[in-house]
Amino acid sequence: MKKMKYLSLIMAVMCVCSLGFTSCGDNDDVVPPPSIVIEEANIEGDELCVEADIKAEGRTQSILITITNAQGSTTKVSYPITASKFLGVLNIEGFHVHVPIGGMNVVVGDLMKLTVTDANGNSTTAQKAITEEEDDEENSIHD
Fold first, then answer.
1. Is 34 exposed, middle or buried (0-12, 13-18, 19+ CB in 10 A)?
2. In this predicted model, which residue has the larger pLDDT, 61 or 27?
3. What predicted TM-score, i.e. pTM, was given to this entire model?
4. How far apart are CA 85 and CA 108, in angstroms?
5. What angle do CA 62, 67, 72 make, to 5 degrees?
6. Is the CB of residue 58 less than 8 Å from the CB of residue 119?
């Protein structure tokens, strides 16, 4: 019976020591916040065409597009992105969405803000002034 008590005590001490060594991991790996490069924010009829490249080492958790007046003081549109192909991923090269803006009084010169939050809670916002749709005829060569 005495052997069992000592054996149990030794096992308990070993468990406590092993927990002490394994619980002190090195968690110094800091994941940087997402980065955003907005390529386009053009009005195309009743939609805003948005193109960007997004990198989120902590995986994207949410993406929100907000359109404000040129001063940024009045929000005209708030559009959350819900497509699963954009959420939970590391990088989105060629992020391309069309935001409905019909009847929202969005005009050239307003600001489009793209906010990306990763799974670690890091958030980044990039903004771009809204422009008109590019005319393909302007880029063609005339005889």
1. buried
2. 61
3. 0.75
4. 29
5. 110
6. yes
Token digits of residue 67: 């359109």
Would you say 52 and 38 are in contact if contact means Cβ atoms under 8 Å apart? yes
Q: Which amino acid is at 48?
A: L
Total length of the chain:
143
Measure the CA–CA gap between 54 and 57, rounded to whole angstroms. Answer: 10
How far apart, in whole angstroms, are the C-alpha atoms of residue 81 and residue 67? Answer: 14
Nearest-CA neighbor of 44 among 93, 86, 106?
A: 106
φ and ψ at 136, to 5 degrees?
Answer: -60, -30
Mean pLDDT of 58-83: 96
Question: 136: Cβ–Cβ under 8 A, 6 or more apart, which residues?
Answer: none
